Input
Amino acid sequence: MDLQVVPLTERKPHIEDESTLVFGKRFTDRMFIMEYDAGQGWHSARITPYAPFVLDPAALVLHYSQEIFEGLKAFRRPDGSVALFRPLDNILRFNRSAWRMCMPEVDPQFFLQAMKELVRLEADWVPRSEGTSLYIRPTMIATEPVLGVKPSSKYLCYIILSPVGAYYSGGFKPVKIWISDQYVRSAPGGTGEAKTGGNYAASLRAAMEAAAKGFDQVLWLDAVHRKYVEEVGSMNICFLYDGKIITSPLGGTILDGITRRSILTLVRELGYEIEERALSIDEIIEGAASGRLQEAFGTGTAAVVSPVGQFTFQDRTVLVGNGEMGELTMKLYQTLTGIQYGRLPDPHAWVETL
Ligand code: COI
Output
């Protein structure tokens, strides 16, 4: 498939002060779009000026949430060049989400080339200061106008770009996490592993209640026993417990995080034993009280490596360590971002230049 580039007629004002960048509120000048029709496949791939879509009010995505998305980042390197972090892994996950949601897969190599071309054209938008990056959001939506519940015969796939700062407004301050015993995010056999908007919509009620009580994020327990840790709102979670790394296993209910995978590789290289198993809420409470729970941190593209300072379950709040960022969390943050920003060698070839 050819990729057409539609010329820009107007440019948005540029970022004047990168320290004002927050997560996901500004968008660049251009976007990538392609369309799908049953019988024809993907077609009309183009990079166009960033603009709203016209959607039929009956479009399936608006009624039954047939939608998937991804999140990855482009980083500015010390020599001024721009690189993407593990883009093919995100594209392959996009295709796995597409399968689960009965949507057409994309050609990974074509999609990667289109993404790189878009970022290349928008390279001026990749910010330069520490902790900033260009967030890349591939998305696919069902566009057939029909009210019957069925997979759409028409789709739109697009990529938008957003120059971002830290995901949490507190920056790198340890986050306060509320453990929900009332709501669940996903159940075995459901769509928890797919990156689909409905999973996030379903998380909003708990997130809103947590925010009203002063918490930053919700930690989800498993739907069956309501006892074992699954993941946090926008990140996977890892614990340093008795000197070992414990993180929830991939069993279909949590997201197979690319940052999670990268961090597991890094901790293995640092010599830590890894247990991919479900940590129970009792172990968190007991471990925090006894000091066996040494550190906890979230991992995600948006969240990077985020220290957890405390957990609250029902009426009990426990601090992790002394509530401050742990040494390992800091080391992992520095190593991961060092590789991403090109300050450290990249022995796993995770970084892809444009
Ligand atoms: C990401 O980390 O890229 C995510 O997709 C999380 C998010 C929903 C902001």
